[in-house]
Fold these 2 entries.
Entry 1:
Amino acid sequence: MDKIVIEGGYPLHGEIAVSGAKNAALPLMAACLLSGEPITLRNMPDLRDTRTFLTLLESFGVTWQKDGTVLVLDASSITNCEASYEMVKTMRASVLVLGPLLARHGTARVSLPGGCAIGARPINFHLQGLEKLGSKYELAQGYVDAKVEGRLQGGTVCFDIPSVTGTENILMAATLAEGVTIIKNAAREPEIGNLVDLLVGMGARIKGKNSDTLVVEGVKKLHGAEQEVIPDRIEAGTYLLAVGAVGGEATVTQCNPQHLPSLLEKLRGAGLSIEEGKDRIHVARKGPIKSVDIKTMPYPGFPTDLQAQIMALMTLSDGLSVIAETIFENRFMHVAELRRMGADIKVDGHSAIVTGTGRLSGAPVMATDLRASASLVIAALAAEGETHISRVYHLDRGYDDLVGKLTQAGARIRREKE
C-alpha cells in the first residue's frame, strides 16, 4: 500500500491543469448501455473509479478502446445484466447501470453499492423513480432485482431532495421509455448537463437542461455519439484551496470558472485574489486568511465535495469559521486527522466550529475517504515539517496524477510504499 509524504511550507507557482471530471465521466460511461452503437468520450480522466467502472462494463459484454484521454465504448453485445457485489463494492456510482440496463434490456440485477463511508446515501430515490416508470423490483440478499414488461412508461418523478445520481439514473431510463417523463426537483449539477448533452447527441429528446425540471420524450432507439467530459470542478477547487493554504500564485487551467460560483465567492471572502478567464482561474494569496462560514448545499450552492478541503484552509485563518454539512451525515471524519496536525475544530451535530490557529504541524495521518484525503494534502502542504498520509488509494479514486501536478507547481511531495 502506498503513502504520500509531504514537506510543507513551499508555496505553489505556475500552472496546474485540471483533468476530466470523475462525477461526469461515470454517468457518461453508463450511458453507453443505452445504445448498440459506439460511444466516444474525450477528456477521460485516468482514475481508479473509471478503471473500476470499465471492468464493470466489461462484465456486461461491453468492449472498449482507449487512446490517451479518448475512450470508445461498444455495448452492441450485452451478455449479462448483473452487476455483482465484487464488481461494485468499492464504488457507489455502479448504481448508474440500473436505469440504462432496465430501459434497454428490461432487466437488471445490481448489488447495493459501496464507495466512501460518508453516510447512508440510500438508493431509494432511484428505485421509487424507476417504479414510477413501470418497473418492478425486489431487494434480496444485498441485490436489487428490477424488471419491466415491455418498455418503461413515461411518468412524473418528483424527488424529495435533489439527488445527482438519482436524477441521472431516471434521466437515462426515461430516454427509452414510451411517452413523456417529467423529473421534478432534479439536481442541477454541471455533470448532469454534460450527460444531457451526450444523450441528446445520441438522439434523446430532453428539455430543461440546467434546470430543476427535466422533460424527456422517450424514443425507441438511441445511436452512437461523441462527447467531451467536462473539467473536474472539484479538482480545480482543491488546487485553488491548496494555493490559498500554502501561499503563492498559480493559474488553474483547463477548468470552467462558471462551475464554481460559490467557492470563488468564499475564496474572495477569505482574502484571496481571484481572476477568472474563459477556461482558467488565477489565484494568489498576499496576506492572512480571513475566516468565512460555509454551508454545503446542492448546486449552485457550496459543494459538499469541497467541504473537507475548505476546512483545511480555515484551520489557517485568523478567526472563527462555522462549517455546516447538510448533504451527508458522516462527512466530518477528516476532523480527527486535522486535529493531529494541530487544528482547533469542534464538532456539534452537523456543524464544525473551526478556530483558526494560523499554523499546522506535520504528523502521520490517515485518509478516510476521497475528499478527506485531499483536505489532508492541503493541510500538509501548509504545515511545518513532514506529513505522512496513509491509505491514499482513496485519493486515486478521484484525482488524476495529483502528486505529479503539485510537484510541477513547486510542492515537495512524493509517493512511496508504506
Entry 2:
Amino acid sequence: MAAVVGVLALQGSYNEHMAALRRIGAKGVEVRKPEQLLGLDSLIIPGGESTTMAKLADYHNLFPALREFVGAGKPVWGTCAGLIFLANKAVGQKSGGQELVGGLDCTVHRNFFGSQLQSFETELPVPMLAEKEGGSLTCRGVFIRAPAILEVGPDVEVLADCPVPAGRPSITITSGEGLEDEVYSKDRVIVAVRQGNILATAFHPELTSDSRWHRLFLAMDKDSRARSFAALSLSASSSEPEVVPKNKPLDLPIFE
C-alpha cells in the first residue's frame, strides 16, 4: 500500500510540496485540522511565515496533535518555517515569541539570513543525499527569509551546511540567564539535519526540480513502517504460548 503523506496546509508553500509529491508518484493530503492527521504515514510542515502559521495552528488546536504525531515516531519533515516549528528552541523571534512543536534537539535562529530582500540561492554540498538517492554531490538551496540552525544535540546528524553570506547582519545569541550574550562568528551555518524520524531543511527543495529530498523523506517513511510491522510481528509471535512436549524436562534459559 502506498504511503499517505500529510502536508500542513495552513499557509505557505504547501501547494508546491503537494506538486513535488505528485511528481514522484506519492499521495499527498492537505491537513488543516487535528483529525486529518489520523491515518497518515508521515507529515510535511512547509515553509511560510512561521508566526502566522503558529497562530493558525493554535486557532485550530493543532499543536497537541502535532506533538503526538512527532512523538509517535512517524516521519516529519519541516522546511524553512517548518524547521522552526520542529526545533526545541528558537531565537530571534518577534516580541512575544511563538509556540513550537519541538522534537528536534537544536537551536534555530528564526531569521538568520536577514530580510526578504536578502533571500538567495546557492549550491549546497550534500554527499549523504547523493549517496542515498544518487545524482549530483550538490543540490540547489533556495533560501527565502530563511532560518538557520545554530547548535545541534549529539543525536542530530548534519546533512548540509552553507557559508554565511557576506554582509549578513550580526547575530547575537543569548546564552542564558546570568551569562553573557555571544555573537555568532562561524564561517558556515547548518541548514539541513536529521534526528530519528525528523528531517529538517532551512531551504525550499519543493521550489526546485530536484526530487531527491522528497524521495529521501519517503524512504524514511518506508523504514518507519517496516520497523512497525516487525515490532507487531514480534509482539504477535511472543504472545503465542510455547508448546512443551510431554516427558521433556524444562531447560533453563541461557543468556548470551
